[in-house]
Every structure is written in C-alpha cells, then in structure tokens.
Amino acid sequence: MHNFMTQCCIAGGGPAGLMLGYLLARAGVEVVVLEKHADFLRDFRGDTIHPSTLTLLDDLGLLEAFLRLPHQEVAQLTADVYGRVVTIADFRHVAAARQFLVLVPQWDFLDFIAAQARDLPNFSLMMGTKARRVLEDRQRIVGVEAEGPDGVFTVTAPLVVAADGRHTTLRGSAGLGSDDLGAPIDVLWFRLPRDHARDRAETGGVIRRGTMVVTLNRGDYWQCAYVIPKGALQSLKEQGIDAFRQRVAAAATFLSDRIGTLTGWDDVKLLSVQLSHMPQWYRDGFLCIGDAAHAMSPIGGVGINLAIQDAVAAANLLARPLLDDQLTGEHLAAVQRRRQWPARVTQRFQRALQDGVLAPVLAGLGTPDDLPLQLKLLDRFPMLRRLPARLIGIGIRPERIRTGPVASPHPAP
Ligand SMILES: Cc1cc2nc3c(=O)[nH]c(=O)nc-3n(C[C@H](O)[C@H](O)[C@H](O)COP(=O)(O)OP(=O)(O)OC[C@H]3O[C@@H](n4cnc5c(N)ncnc54)[C@H](O)[C@@H]3O)c2cc1C
Fold first, then answer.
1. Whose CA is nearest to atom 9 of ligand 1?
2. Half-sphere exposure of 282 (CA within 13 A, CB side)
3. If you write DSSP's letter for every residue of 3-14 in order, what string do you get?
4. Which helix (H) or strand (E) segment is 375 a member of?
5. Atom 4 in ligand 1: residue holding the nearest Cα
6. Cα 37 to ligand 1 centre (Å)
7. For atom 3 of ligand 1, which residue has the closest CA?
8. Cα distance between residue 30 and residue 125, in whole Å
9. pLDDT (tens digit, 9 = 90+) per residue, 252-298?
10. What is the pTM of this model?
11. Which of 59, 98, 107, 324 is most exposed by smallest CB count within 10 Å?
C-alpha cells in the first residue's frame, strides 16, 4: 500500500465519521475514511435514529429512501413503573421532518450513508484499515499512520478527524485527554423473540423494585436492556444464568414464556456505561468528534444522533476553509464551541436521571405509591411529555446542513 495525501482523513466509520465524510465530500472536499472493521455488521450498539437526524436526511433528499429500509417507528415512549404505565415522551408534536423515532439496525444505517458517499468521486472509504497513530510535524498534526490488509502506510492531510468512538486510539496519540464524569450503571443487552400476535407493540421500559428492563420492539424480536449497578455483572454471573433469567421474567412478565431462549452468558453483552468529555477537542490539524469527544450514557438513546450533529456542525464550519486551504486552529475551536455545550447539557440531564432515578430504583428505593416526582408530573400533565420528546428527539442546538450542492429545502433555524 502506498502513502498518499488527501484534504481530510477521518479515523472511524461510525455515525460521526461517515456522516462527516459524506458531507465534506458532497461539498467538494477530498476525504478518506479509515474503518478498522471489514464491515458494519457488529454487535448491537444502538439502533435509534431520532427526528433530528430524520430532518437532516430530509435536508439531503434521502429521507424517503431511508424510510424504505426495514424499520419500526416509535411515536411515544412508555414506562411501566411498579405496574403503572406512564408515557414519558410524546414525539407526535416535535418540529421535525417526521414526528417519530426510527429503530433501524445501525449497520443498515451505516451501509445506507456509506452507499450515498461512495457515489461521490472525492470520497474514499477504506474498510479493514486501522488508524494507528497521528503524525506530527512541528507541533502540528499532519496525518495518520494506518494499517490495512496490505500493510502499513501513511495518509497526510491538513485535517485529521478522530471519529473512532469512545475507545479512541487517536485522541491519546494526539496527547489529548478526557474527563470521566462517572456513571453508576452498566447495561446488559440481549435479544428475545417477539410474539406478533400477543405482545404489546410499544417500545418502553419496565421498572420494578431493584430492576429496570427496557424493551425495544425490533419486529421479530425484542432488543432488551437490563440495567445493573456499575460492576455488578460478576456477581450476577456467580448467581448463574438461571437466576438472571428469573430476574428478567419477574420484572417483564410478558417475556417469561421465552426467557429460556437465553441459553448462556454468551447471549448477554455488557455495555460498560461511560460518561466523559474532553476539555479540549482539537489541536492544530486535528479534531475529535462524536463519542471520541464525549462518550454518552445510553439514557435517551442519543449517542448516534449527537455524533451526527457533531459531524454536521464540523462540515458546516470546516468545508470552506478546507476547500480554500485556509484551515486554522480557530476553525477547529469553533466546532468545539458550537457542539460542546449541547453535549455537556445532555450529559447533565443523563447524570441527573442516572443518579436521581436509576440509582435509587436499582437500590430498591421507591414504592408504587411514591413515583419519582418527574414521573408523577408526566403522568398527570400530558403536555409535559413534549419536553422529554424535544430533548431526546431534537436535542439542544439542533444543526441543519449548510454545505453541499443541494440548497436546503428548509429555512435555517
Ligand atoms: C451496546 C450499545 C448500545 C447503544 N445504544 C444506543 C442507542 O440505542 N441509541 C444511540 O443513539 N446510541 C446508542 N449507543 C451509543 C452509540 O452507539 C454511540 O454514541 C455512537 O455510535 C457514537 O458514534 P461515533 O461515530 O462517535 O462512534 P462509534 O459508533 O463508536 O464509531 C467509531 C468507529 O470507529 C471505528 N474505529 C475505532 N478505532 C478505530 C481506529 N483506530 N481506526 C479506524 N477505525 C476505528 C470503530 O470500528 C467504529 O466503527 C449505544 C452504544 C452501545 C455500545
């Protein structure tokens, strides 16, 4: 493999990296995306595409094609709290291209964006290719050393973007750090069959004393999340898979007739929840976005959508300077200024829910007659359900696409 040059080298073909690569290439920038895996087909890592992202797909003229992929649409989120069903978010009124949240396998979404990008002559996606470290010249990052199926090579570029997720390699290699905000929970993910005829349809959660199970309707199966106190997996394993099955079935009773399909711990994947953010997202010639810049808690399923918002802001702010070969650290600082605040405020909400609702529930606190105040209010006043819908579905400071050859059909916010 030969060394080569490009205008922007992006490490990581997740939602952030692929969307940024697509938008920059669409605006005329020459882009190379390096993705360490050979395909997008991996373990479950989130399937939620929120109204904010549907609006962006609409801006790009891709929404109808996207909605032709097999998917489920969720207009309301509910939680069964000690037997009382509370609607916690109602998306039917959000100001977006569609008033629902879409559940679609993440690999289908990534394949879809990659297919659009591959149609562009100045976009290149190198699968099975790992970014190993950044290259520096006089305090400036000038490229990446990468390893692909044909060996080690270098890519030099005026801009390197680390979109390599929460276990980022490039962030540390560039000498940048991240502050851990702490998370009192971990999540166990597994699938159980869905009975079309008998099961309810809604995506939602079940809270019982000491237990929380979230069930996402994925058509033929339920994607289930079982929330545990941080680090509790080992003691669950010591109690055995049968005890775990009983815990799940005792909370989500409608799953008890098929809980046996969970044959062992290999069927259960641990998400070690992390909440972190970087004090500084950039150096000269280098920028972190998405989970690499701010790992999110799974609460609200906002990680994919925030990563995409970062990508849109970065493309809006960086396409022109890259095309003019005028990129400076100030342009990169502008991306951080634009996206840091939404990420931090969202993390604050996630923390408040983690510490104020989930941790007490898992500790066995609360009673059926003593719902947390937030849930009582949502139960009593349906109008209030629009607020969590707005926060989850649209987010803070939503971005619109301002780059590329196609004029946006929507007015800027
Ligand atoms: C189990 C689980 C469930 C989740 N559920 C949800 C959910 O329901 N909704 C939601 O919105 N979010 C969810 N998330 C979070 C969501 O997946 C992330 O927030 C989102 O994917 C972040 O996008 P990203 O592009 O920044 O990073 P990632 O999606 O992590 O993408 C990073 C990419 O970089 C690649 N990569 C890593 N290192 C290198 C390297 N050195 N060189 C080249 N490539 C590299 C990786 O293979 C990966 O493809 C979940 C995460 C997990 C793990």
1. 301
2. 23
3. -EE-SEEEE--S
4. helix 373-380
5. 46
6. 12
7. 45
8. 11
9. 998 999 999 999 999 999 999 999 999 999 999 999 999 999 999 98
10. 0.93
11. 324
